[in-house]
Amino acid sequence: MQIRSVASSPADLEADALVLTLFQLADGEKPDSQADAWSSGIIAELYSRGEFSGKALETVVIHRPAGLKASRLLLVGGGKRDAYSSAVARRGAAVAVRQLKPKGAKSIAIVVPVRFDVAQAMTEGALLASFDVGELKTSDEGKGALETLTIVASADVSAAVDKGRLSAAGQNFARSLGNAPPNLLTPPALVERSRQMAAQAGLEIEILERGEMAKMGMGGLLGVAQGSAEPPALIILRYTPDKAAGNDHLGLVGKAVTFDTGGVSIKPSADMDLMKYDMAGGAAVLGAMQAIAALKPSRPVTALVPTVENMVGSRAQRPGDVVTTLSGKTVEILNTDAEGRMILADALTYGQQLGCSRMVDAATLTGAIVVALGHERAGLFANNEALQQEILAAAETVGEKFWPMPLDEEYKELLKSPIADFPNIGSRWGGSITAAMFLKQFADPTPWAHLDIAGTAWLEQDKPYMPKGPTGMAARTFIELAMRP
Ligand code: BES
Ligand code: MN
Ligand code: ZN
């Protein structure tokens, strides 16, 4: 697909569709007269009949608009003008593309309204909306193919469009990994995809295999892996800036369980297929790294993605087993389905050994976070107030939603084992917190934050701006965190 930005009048643009954002009208306000002229008065009529009000993400198509060269004009609601944000802009562009693409529009031009700072978000939204969840379908029916995307503004927005393109590509890479079926995306396959990405992006990559991990003592990760015929790996990617500013070394850690059966503490079979997205945290890290390599922030970033398959088998780990983690701490496995924290524990310790000054992990860690926060916000846990605030600010900038969750020392009382340093589960309540508390034992004293994305990494129902499937959650926040001054 060709992506370009132009600073010309929308009226002269040849395209299958031109997308225009229009706002809700204040009392007595008339619709934009320029836009109304392009539609030869249809826009004013739509408003006055109440067929279009400008409410966020509302749409109407006008065919053969008299004052435009484009063959269709798609109006997208921007909501109240004062409340317009890059988050609304991103979704608006996505809604437009999701509507136009299946109807055969091959060239789409999107007009950046009001301000230029939404050009990046609109590019991003349009490209996120072009993601195809049906990659493995052998028929192209109803899919459409977008050939050119033009971002139209009254100033030069090419730098913003570039950023939007790179960020969207990273997110879509994460989504394609999350979407891949678990027979095709095994741990070795994830290693292979990471190698390809790293080679293309110019990132240094190192793969720790079972033998090395055993020598190093990564008993947490290896215990989970031992029930699967697929060999585990710890994927390490390094981005090194030409000239580092400051001495921050950011570590991004992502859970990549390519399939989670629960192990011997097996999951119920209903919806178990969805446990293919138990690698979404790792995918978000890999997608972010692809974008980071291109956007070139001035701090080093190291990615650690432990990848395993949690299976049942004669070699599988048993409830009651005790393993020694890389940190030297021992863990009694009381539930083999609490596997994410075991692989993250070793990755966090290794991140410290590699010299990360701050670490953030993303993981589809607990069903309990879905009970607590549903599907809109992901849980944010941290052992460091400054890092927590910075993540909230970064997320706000890029339109991802988190919610701060507690990590009081009292919760540690729930992590007591008579025979080992910790059990791998707490009691029945506060499951997302005890899981985070467990991770904290391995992250301390390094400033660290944990994003529990179990409820937000997979969209269960189509939204106008996103199809059912992998969301790429956390990738944008990771990119923004790496880029911040
Ligand atoms: N991968 C699951 C968590 C999950 C649940 C992700 C729903 C996405 C949607 C994780 O490995 C898990 O099984 N957690 C257990 C922990 C429990 C055994 C303490 C859970 O949440 O039930
Ligand atoms: Mn599990
Ligand atoms: Zn899991």
Explain what this protein looks like in three dimensions.
The chain has 485 residues and is α/β, with parallel strands linked by helices. It is built from 14 helices and 20 strands. Strands 7, 8, 9, 10, 11, 14, 15, 16 and 18 form a 9-stranded mixed β-sheet that branches. Strands 1-6-5-2-4-3 form a 6-stranded mixed β-sheet, with helices on one face. The structure holds ligand BES, manganese (II) ion and zinc ion. Residues 260, 262, 278, 335, 337-340, 364-368, 370, 425, 431, 454 line the site of ligand BES. Zinc ion (ZN) is lined by residues 257, 260, 278, 339-340.
Write the layout of secondary structure elements.
Blueprint: E1 2-6, E2 17-22, H1 33-38, H2 42-49, E3 59-63, E4 72-77, H3 86-100, E5 107-111, H4 119-129, E6 148-152, H5 158-179, H6 187-201, E7 204-208, H7 210-216, H8 219-225, E8 233-239, E9 250-254, E10 256-260, H9 280-295, E11 301-310, E12 322-324, E13 330-332, H10 340-353, E14 358-363, H11 367-373, E15 378-382, H12 385-398, E16 402-404, E17 422-423, H13 431-443, E18 448-452, E19 458-459, E20 469-470, H14 475-483
Helix pairs in contact: 3-4, 4-5, 5-9, 6-9, 8-10, 9-14, 10-13, 12-14
